[in-house]
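Re-run with default settings, no changes from the original entry. Doing this only to confirm the output is reproducible before filing.
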Amino acid sequence: MTNQTANGGRPPFAAYGPASAGYGPGAPVTVPPTIGPAAPGAPAPWPSPGSPPNGSASPAGARPPRRGLGITALVLACVGAIAAFTASPLAWLLLVTALVLAIVHLARRGGARVPAVIAIVIVGFGVFIALIAAVVSGFTSAGSGVDSAPDPETDTYTLAQRLALPPGRGSESELAWGTAQTVIDSDTGDDVWSIRTLAPIDITSETATASPAPFSASGSLVATPVEITNLTDETIDSDAWQLRFSTSYRLSDGTYADAAYDPAVTDLYPSRYDITDVAPGATVTFYVVHDGSIAEADEGSVEVGLYSGDIITWTATGG
């Protein structure tokens, strides 16, 4: 008995199984197309794994734009522009460095250009400010009192150059012990000091009793008194420029003796640096003390050097 149907007959039972419905193991799989626009009214195709969202065409792993040099240039340009207001040389260094970094950044591909462009604009502004600050600084320096008188508190060396020997009254030769010499202010012509040096004295015995005893390579010390009288109408203090002069003892062989500033000596025979205030018309005495014998000292000389270059000399044979 055959299993047939009318009008072509009914297909076998197997035709209605899972394979015939497209769900069986052997059923072919149809992949929907992913290229091309979808038909009107049809749902959009499901994106495949790994594809960028929203239809973006950026490749996977793309690097963001590089901003390092641009940001650095921008920061240096801002700092340089601020420093330009002070006319500092550092401003020029910062501005030039910022400009170079900005240009290098713009020359690269794939970099963000906005920070570098802003940096170049700020550099131009900074250069303009720096030029104005330099001009203003130059005018300020030119008119800052170049021709004004020196400040006695800060420029005593320059003021001390005014101490000089009076024209026609200066000593062109060595003076004898005890001879007075006038020193003037070369700017005003007014008398400042009357100076004289007395004969040396042997102070070995007086200083030997000090404790501790002062050092003496030769075993003896000699002190030469120097008297100065204030000829001005005001008190001269120890820091005044009028007391800026040097004193030294020159031996007969032309060399200079080492001065002794040991406290055991200066307590009894104060040095020039121990002078305090000298009232108008007052006379003070200080001592040039050196290591040596009195016999040798009698053949030497005392020199008082003024900052103007004038030197006053006293000796036993002067006159």
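Confidence is low (pLDDT under 50) at residues 1-6. The beta strands are 163-164, 175-176, 180-185, 191-197, 201-202, 221-230, 245-250, 283-291, 301-306, 311-315.
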